[in-house]
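Exam revision sheet. Question 4 asks you to relate a sequence to its structure. Input first:
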Amino acid sequence: GGATPLPWPPVHTHVEMMWNVDAPTEAASNKQFYYDFPARSMRVDNNNFQSFWLNDTLSMVVPGVFCQQLQMGFGMMKPDWMVSNATNEGDLWLTRRLQRSPGYDHTRWNRKSALPDGWFDYFSTFATGEPYRMSAPSPAGKVVNEYYDFTPQTSFPAGTFTLPDTCTKKPSTSTSSLKSLFAALPHHSLHSSMVVMTAVHEAMQPLLAHIDGHQKNSVVAAMQTLVAQAMVDNIIMH
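Answer key, structure tokens:
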């Protein structure tokens, strides 16, 4: 029952508050999304860290300091990444850790397999189908993304998705490719996404040297979750 979960608006902004279930004392991460699927462009601002996913290239940036670019071989998540081919598991009353008002909300629960590593659990508002929260496995532990302030846009101002100078200069830019890794993986389960997320973590090492210690775990988890969401669209589901 309940309203069918809505796909994300094809052009929009929203906020995600992310926290790690396995590290409850860590501060939540506040992520501002700029999402333009028709242009295959996405930008996420996360405190003093940014990421840009433009076509098949994921750029991770400490502004003015360092830029790590990964040739992924696949692009950003689609608007219906957790709506299509998901299993309806019924409804639940949930709260959000960072809820702006107290109490519980009636939600619809959709699930996709990430076996043997767990599940992608996506919750939408029961009455309207609007995004509510998502939990997902990652090598950094189970993370929860709480969704707020989905605001459709007609377009974005010029320069919204322009890479900062840090990504166009040497030696502040490091580039590597995961295309061959992705092409060689079996496409029969989301277990493959764990392999790619681990590879993303390894490829991030030059970047992580420029990030404060207390923020490293949240940055790694944020990027692995971002990749996991895109992987849902790029691996055949069973």
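Marking note for examiners. DSSP finds four helices and twelve strands in the chain.
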